[in-house]
Task: structure prediction
Amino acid sequence: MTELRGGRGGAPAPGKSLAEKILSRSSGRDVRAGDLVIVPISRVMVHDSVIDAVMQGLRDLGKERVWDTGRVCVFVDHAAPAPTPVVADSHRVLREWVRRQKIPTFYDAGEGVCHQIMVEEGYCEPGTVIVGSDSHSNSYGAVGAFGAGMGATDIAVALGLGRTWLRVPESIKVVFTGKLRKGITMKDAIMRVVREIGTDGARYACVEFHGVGDLPQGDRITLAGMTTEMGAKAGIVVGTPEAPDWLRPDPDASYLRTVTIDLSTLEPQIAVPPRVDQVVDISAAVGQPVDIVFLGSCTNGRLVDMQQAASVLRGRRIDPRVRLEVVPASRRQFELAMRDGTLQILSAAGAVIGSSGCGPCLGRTGGVLAGDEICLSTANRNYKGRMGSPKASIYLGSPLVAAVAALTGVIDDPRSYLEASDAEFEALVERRRSERGDRGAASSRSGDRLEALTVVARPPRFAPQAEVDD
Amino acid sequence: MARAWVFGDDLDTDQIVPGRYAPFMVGEDKYQSYAFCDARPGFAKEVKPGDILVGGENFGCGSSREYAVSALKKLGIGGIVAKSFARIFFRNCINLGIPVLESADAVERVKDGDPVTLDAAAGVLRTPSGDASLRPLAPFAREILDAGGVVAYLAAHGDFPSVG
Result:
């Protein structure tokens, strides 16, 4: 007989975390961290890269049809539009499958990143469990859903049965206090959190964000999605406008750990390759040359991100030694940025505008990196080989940092530019460009710098003592 | 006797199979030949069925790509022993029937290339420098693994266990 309850001893039960509330309600039982639950799923998100394995999983399970066509959302976004004939064939297989299954919710190439569309088009019901085939499905916590990324076979099981098994996670509480200063964004805030917690500090856990429920939805997607980079099973923002009244953690809920970040003293943050948790205040990275800048992804590909970049680049041209790629996160964001002139400003500045989707974030389409190239990306991962050549280096930063890097050819503090007069601004750009030197010199310089930064940035390892079973 | 392949901390799935060699990029029959192609050139050619991967903390972090695990399965990996595993990778291994076991000391005891034996029943990895102890799997994960993966588990049981 399967043991479904974890041993908690005889201590009186404290209040519940958000994860415990959602999984209790979904499973119809009073469950706590450590318990195993079988829960119904309100949506399953499936993306293009996994379709063959998902179809194989369904065949192996003997399931001809998905359990509920109205609860399945399918996206062609990871390698879209198709870059090679093999991928094109795979996309065709996916489209035929969607048609055969009569799944009405299908977003083809160019519609945008699955996570952005899942949240902005209202597919994520707060307080429910959603599973997705992409690891950044944690993003659905932006509106108070328990979103978890899973592999293709788990997704096939979810599609076949409409349920999944989960171990109720422990939770980590992240409290934001104060207000962001000009030139600092929630991307900086979440990188500061990753710096604190580390790439596996939230492994098997749910990260709860307190104090930011009233932020714009896009900022909340940035927060929830990046919990994946701490190993979290889910990341949920507390007190969002979408959340029903019951969806709040009890004041006496128990947490593995509480991390408090004062937004009013936050500096712009930079993640140093090849780890997302090698994060430094920007002052340590100023002058780092870059060859290519990517502005986009589910983390930072929204109108506000493009507007921030445009506020720096308006009426100017990027450094001729740098390429800038802008990929709106969805068609909605693309059209908003087109309508208000933001894309016009970015294009006039020299940006390549890509069709909405994951774009170069994972090195499959559009602007993959050459060996030894250095990228400043607004996305969420800087692993070796993530965006192309394994010899390339990827720094992560905010859209404002990205715009300044495109303009000057180096990483620099965006606040210097936002506060400068026009004359001071131009002088600063000129100085940074002349300091950068040529590409060969820049590249060899960056090697030493990278080594030095790596030593500074490596965080202490904190891992929750959770039972291993997801 | 199996060979141990030793890796460090935070081995991400981009290193196991880079995204550019995903099955849907290079074909369902080829992607496993790119396993560790950047991180450990030659791995896919030299690895033998039954070989054991040994790693540090957070093994398999990053992308949810199950093909990182199915590539290892196609190559016949007999099990993975690490200080800790990233959650999606862990689930994927259980679902596809690859034993994944936590051990605090295996990565310190084992040198790359050592002959090792995974004795899951005894809860140890036998190594030339003594036995490394393995943390027992949670019961439900073990049931899925014992069945040979989640598809086989569901075929045998018809459904998940009822919870009332």
User: Anything to note?
Assistant: Chain B has one domain: 2-136. The domain at 2-136 of chain B is CATH 3.20.19.10 (Aconitase; domain 4).
